[in-house]
Amino acid sequence: MALDWIPRAPKNEILNHRTTSDERLQRTEPPRTTYELKPIIDPQGNKVDGLYIAWITLDNPAQYNSYTLDMLAATAVAFDKASHDPSVVCVVFTGAGDRAFCTGGNVPEYAEHYVMRPLDCQEYMSVYWRAFDQVWTSPKPFIRRCNGMSIGGGEELGAVCDLCIAADTASFGQVGPQHGSTAMGGACQFKSVEMTMQDAMWNAVSCEQWSAYKMYRKNYIHQVVPILKKDGKFVRNPEVVTDKWVENGEIVYGEFLPDPAERSAAKKLARSMETDMSQLDKACMDMAWTFTTLFPQQVAVSYGLLRAQKKVAYERTKAEIIWWWAANAGAYGEFDMGMSAFNTKNVTGTTNCNVIKLRQMIAEGHPYDEEMFKAVMPKPKE
Question: Which domain range does residue 307 map to?
Answer without folding.
Answer: 23-227+277-325
